[in-house]
Amino acid sequence: MQWRDVLEISRFQNLILAALTVPLGAHIALDGLWSYDSGLNVLLAMLSVMAFMAAGNILNDIADNNIDKEAHPNRVIPSGRMTIKQAKSLTQVFSLLSLILLAILSWRNSYWPLIAIWLTAAVLMLTYDHGPQTKKNGLAGNISISLMVGAVILFGAAAVRSMDSQLIWYAAGVAMLANLAREIIKDCEDVESDADRNTLPMRIGLAKSRNVAYVIICFSLILLYLPHWLGPLQFWQLLLQTPAIMMLITLGTPLLNGEYYSAQQRIRMAMLLGLISFAAAVSI
Fold first, then answer.
1. CB 226, CB 250: distance < 8 Å
2. In this structure, are residues 51 and 187 in contact, taking their beta carbons and an 8 Å threshold?
3. Which helix (H) or strand (E) holds 233?
4. Measuring CA to CA, which residue among 204, 206, 208, 172 is closest to residue 186?
5. What is d(CA 97, CA 48) in angstroms, rounded to the nearest whole number?
6. Where are the domains of the chain?
7. Is the terminal CB of the chain with fewer CB neighbours within 10 Å at N or C?
């Protein structure tokens, strides 16, 4: 087992992108008013999230090993670069590291929502691939993953003891709904290879699933708009959300054309741009 195999199976690039939402969540919750303690707490939270997600990604590859032998034989486990036993040991190491970082952060903060969010995410992660295996019941698995995406943003706010921020809940809601649409679109993309799952496209068809995804996108746009209408943001600051809004409202064409990979990547970028715009708005 080599370091590059560890980085590959943990999906290091995805870990970096996910970890960046932690300081964005903290920044939004703090209204841009940082301190040294806040920065240190957010760093601990980022590292805890990265270790947590690495463990989850490895668990997913362990569960998918038999499928990957046919569909993705070059991945770390089916290619023989890492054994199941080694992967399980690596999962335990990353899980323990995440828990230790959480303990340090909780000791520094004495803030119970940190533990509540971590435990909720842990339950969602474990039941995704094991136990009830919500992954196999496509929509339930999609919701679990999307709740974890929103939880990362809330974890950033909890790291700086700012869960009472109204805007952070809007931001988490936008990310959760947008990611739910993205997960459904990914299932549309993988409908031919998801033989062991009962996904939404398998149940209601590709056309209806695309429509469901687009309706969810519309609800995420409403949540994007509400803090500018009801507060705490000013209405003119909605201009900052223009790139994210345009990327989301123009998804109809790639969806109709069956360009699922392009569509789900655009949603991912729109989520990040939306969070950055919220962060920019509180700084103005």
1. no
2. no
3. none
4. 206
5. 7
6. 1-161, 165-284
7. C
Please check whether residue 270 is in contact with residue 277, taking contact to mean a CB–CB distance below 8 angstroms.
Answer: no
Q: Which H/E stretch holds residue 33?
A: none
Distance CA 140, CA 257 (A): 26
Residues with Cβ within 8 Å of residue 266, at least 6 apart in sequence: 247, 248, 251, 254
Topology of the domain comprising 1-161: Tetracycline Repressor; domain 2 (1.10.357)
Is it true that domain 165-284 has CATH number 2.60.40?
A: no
Q: Kindly give the confidence (pLDDT) of every residue in the chain, 284 residues in length, as a single tens digit, with 9 standing for 90 and above.
A: 788 888 899 989 888 888 889 999 999 999 888 898 999 999 999 999 999 999 999 998 888 777 777 767 888 888 888 889 999 999 999 999 999 999 999 999 888 999 999 999 999 998 987 778 888 888 899 999 999 999 999 999 999 998 888 999 999 999 999 999 999 999 998 887 766 778 899 889 999 999 999 999 999 999 999 999 998 999 999 999 999 999 999 988 898 888 999 999 999 899 999 999 999 999 88
* DSSP class per residue in 51-99: HHHHHHHHHHHHHTHHHHHHH-TTSTTTTTSS-HHHHHHHHHHHHHHHH
Residue 262: exposure state from Cβ atoms within 10 A (0-12, 13-18, ≥19): middle
Chain position carrying tokens 């746009």:
221
pTM attached to this predicted model? 0.91
Count, residues in the chain: 284
Terminal-residue alpha carbon distance, the chain: 48
Distance CA 109, CA 31 (A): 19
